[in-house]
Amino acid sequence: MSSGFPWLTVLIAWPLVAAAATALTGVGRGRPSAGVVRAGRFGAGAARWVALVGALVEVGLLVGAFLAFDTTAAATYQLTETYRWIPALGASYAVGVDGVALLLVALSVGLVPLVILAAWHEQGGDRSRLRRYLATVLVLEAFMVAVFAARDVFLFYVLFEAMLIPAYFLIGGFGQGSQRRYAAVKFLLFSLAGGLVMLAAVVALYLQVPVEQRGPQTFLTENLIANLAASLDPTAERLMFAAFFLAFAIKAPMVPVHTWLPDVAENATPGTSTLLICVLDKVGTFGMLTLCLPLFPEASRWAAPFVIVLAVISILYGAILAIGQNDLLRLIGYTSVSHFGFIILGIFTFTALGISGSSFMMLNHGISTGALFLVAGFAIARHPRHSQRIADYGGLRIVAPVLGGTFLVAGLSALALPGLATFVSEVMVFLGAYGRWPAAVLVAVPAVVLAAMYVLLTYQRMFTGTPSADVANVTDLNGRERTVAGVLIAALVVLGLVPGPALDYVREPGQVSVELVGATEPAAATTQETTQGTTEGSEQ
To answer: What's residue 121's pLDDT?
Structure first.
């Protein structure tokens, strides 16, 4: 369903324009003497404002895309554009979004201006370095929008690999940890390994399409679903599913291929971690939902028990490891391993409620964990040594009450407190999973208690008690930082108290996903069996 105006192409292209403008903006060169950071003469100057205005224009374009989207047909690809790209390979430039993809595009676009605001005085006051950092953030934004909008599997693969380039430089080139280059290389190697396996599956997918059905749009998702519905060999289907799933499990990240994520969280800037973990990693769960399930329905059902076990292990493992962390950013990274386990659990319930809850949780996790990363970054920036060790803090609530309050609310959202956004989606996942995998839910439920432990213990160690000597004289959040935290906290509260409008975007796609995978809703099956038994009894 096309709207006439190329909303998605503009949303992809505009950040690249803004990135070029940001990279070319700036007066003079050099760093402030003696490492002193100043916002005016030695700061990022105009480049910061160019980047921020560019990101805000992107938000305006997003509003236009939302207005053009019909929520009554949220499971249908809308705002579509299709152009020939590589006809000989059957690849096309095809973009379009359903309700789930549009929410993830919104998450991408909404977080970028907040990351730019949070990074206002980062990179040690080096104006040239900050300018390049902000330009790279905008380039990554273009790739994030494009990968969620891609409807062509070959195009999706190309974007899946291409977005590693800006992500690698954001970690290794602009990170703040001593092991940032190691973390960047580890991230790249894990991702490239998954991408290589996925490429083999993409080629195999093309070869599975009957020759007479190949054409310029062979890789279009809906064409592949139609052309492979009756001709796909079961063994080939399972092998291709395994290849796609491995690539997405690395990206998600999922135990046991998650080990790159804590290293990235510890060594990247909070803003980079926000974009990589809160947005880019959703490509993994998004790919499972929009490619693995509809393209390989039989293999998805076959692999579901194994995936459910790994998801539950991820939920518990990430929560337990988070409790034992001394590094604040590494702790937040492990919480995401746990939360991604919930998302994957909901997807492989094959119930409309569970899949809708997972789709909603992709959005909510991005907001709540993004708030944790950015507010944690504000706290670290106030420490005289910029320490990330939790033990180096204490009593921050007394000297910086707004900082303490925003961290607490973000943490409470991470543990799914009622009234905040993640509570709604987590309950939906549990209820959807219980109808098909009750044992998995019973094993995973203790993670709720573990989440309360890692959030409240961290808050107690950092924000309560007598202020330590290092933080006794720190200042509270300024207006810019309050804007960043306030927008995120407001989003968590609104989505927690009034989730209905957002759920309208994921409810119908969840139902369609169940149909595409060929599963039956547990409740519907029970009702059908009861009705059939009653009918047979009356006939007798």
So the answer is: 86
